[in-house]
Amino acid sequence: MKLSMFNVWNDDDPLIIYNAKTGALATFEPPYRAPVLAALTNHNPSLLPQEFVEILTEDGYLVGKETDELAYIQGLVEARQKLTAEYYFSILLSLACNFDCFYCFEDHTGKILDAAVAQRLIAMMERIAPTAKKIAIDWYGGEPLLSFPRLQQLNDRFMALCAANGTHYEISITTNGYLLTQEVIDYLKGVPITHLQITLDGPPDTHDQSRPLKNGGPTFAMILDHIENAVRNGLGIFIRVNITRHNIDRIYELYRILAARGLKNKVRLLLKPVVSSPVRPCEDDCLMGVDLSSRMVPIYVQAAKDGWIVFPHVNSMQCMGFCVADFPSQFIIDPSGAVYKCGECFSEAETVGSLADDGEIVLNQEAYQPWVKKTPLDYPECRACQILPICMGGCNMKRWWHKTDCCEELKHNLPDFLRAMVLNQDNMSQARS
Question: In what order do the strands lie in the sheet with 25-28?
Answer without folding.
Answer: 7-9, 15-19, 25-28
